[in-house]
What we know:
Blueprint: E1 2-5, H1 6-11, H2 13-23, E2 27-30, E3 36-39, H3 42-54, H4 58-73
Parallel strand pairs: 1-2
Antiparallel strand pairs: 2-3
Amino acid sequence: MIAASISDFRKDIKSYLDRVTNNFETLIINRGKDNGVVVISLEEYNSLNATQHELSSKSNEQRLDSAIEKLKSGAMFSKELIEK
């Protein structure tokens, strides 16, 4: 996680945004006491939204929990991928 003041961010916007997108870092831009902005990459944002969607219904949550338990207990199987 990176933190910067708004003036530091203004001075070197490109560098900060490159670090966020290239290194999957989170940037917090401080704007005063208990006030700020969080900057994340589009890829990270999309990932968070997908996770939120997957956990938004009880049936999805139960399906994912079941899959995790199967993985932990070794009750899984593998398949060969067919390449075209």
